[in-house]
């Protein structure tokens, strides 16, 4: 084959490749009758009759109900915890990878409006989060305030055994209470 025939073949091959990509990733996954029905209540939104609503409710009842994976009681979810920043309380931030933890940790040290906000120097990753009226004692134990004091991405078990000793090394001996 010479170079002219290669040049003529390229545009149709690229167009075919584009159509395959569009078909694979953009086209609806379930055309026609193969699509699952809408959940009950959608018939009322689109103006379906009572027979159609009853049919959809029967189909929904036939599907197995998913059990709650973490069935927390409402009292546990809505409880209020008093945090005494001036006292001995410390927030220990458990960083879980790929959950937005880095962004949230940064917000903890940079964007919370406090009586004495964390002091962050330009170009530094760690910020000093001292208690109001104090120079040494910190109220936050996180990657952005104390660094990786308990190791990279320490889990709950590592943190519960490491935090008291790390706080003592930092000169915060009164912070022995863990919650």
From TrEMBL:
Domain of life the protein comes from: Eukaryota
Reactions performed catalytically: alpha-D-glucosaminyl-[heparan sulfate](n) + 3'-phosphoadenylyl sulfate = 6-sulfo-alpha-D-glucosaminyl-[heparan sulfate](n) + adenosine 3',5'-bisphosphate + H(+)
GO molecular function term, any single one: heparan sulfate 6-sulfotransferase activity
Extent of the signal sequence: 1-28
This protein's record includes keyword Lipid biosynthesis: no
Instruction: Report TM segments.
Output: none
What is the purpose of this protein? 6-O-sulfation enzyme which catalyzes the transfer of sulfate from 3'-phosphoadenosine 5'-phosphosulfate (PAPS) to position 6 of the N-sulfoglucosamine residue (GlcNS) of heparan sulfate.
Q: This protein is called what?
A: Heparan-sulfate 6-O-sulfotransferase
Q: Whose protein is this, by species?
A: Xiphorhynchus elegans
Which gene is annotated as encoding this protein in its UniProt record? Hs6st3
